[in-house]
Design goal:
229 residues; alpha+beta; 6-stranded antiparallel β-sheet; 36% helix; 20% strand; globular
Length: 229
Amino acid sequence: MPLTLRKTLKFTGYTIGGILGVAALYIGSALVLSAIPVAKTDPNAPADVTVFLHTNGVHTDIVLPIKTEQIDWSQSLPIANIPSQDSTMRYIAFGWGDKGFYLDTPTWADLKFSTAFVAAFWLGSSAMHTTYFHSLAPGPETIPLHLSHAEYARLIAYIQRSFALDAAGRAQHIKGHSYGQDDAFYEAHRVYSFLYTCNTWTNNALKASGQRACLWTPSDKGIFHIYGR
């Protein structure tokens, strides 16, 4: 076998081995760290506000009442920004993710390798996705969480910090983009990667508000496992 060919095959073998090794380390870390629970900060906190943890099977959202005595989300995120403009909505779901992935991949059938690559390796920007509901009921994909006023205040602050505001301090609506009649997108802070995913954002929201969470997780499975689902 020519020397050049041997070197090429050797390099290719090392490259493939390295990629497989990193993938195995990532999967192993995700399985181990997502199984390590972070306990609720105050187990005796009063149940003043009910919020929900929701998944579509891949991506998690935190769902909150649109209006409580602590905040009216419609003041900063106008209902006019969703196509239906339905003012009877009672809940708003917050999700964070890669902007390109969100806007260019409304369904998994639309996923492109280039979109996934940019999202995984810190090459894109991010967006907040808000989805509105008339009602929400507990179920396999929806877990109710009961927060104190103090815990809810920390959750509000965490979500607000995720929005990239304009010079006037307003959320920046990404016009012309929605998955349906009852959702909207906004500019956000941070960059998505395989180390900080949409579900990592949700998991950190739980930590910020003193709720049970994973030590770290890139997937919805880790979070829902902590809650016995």
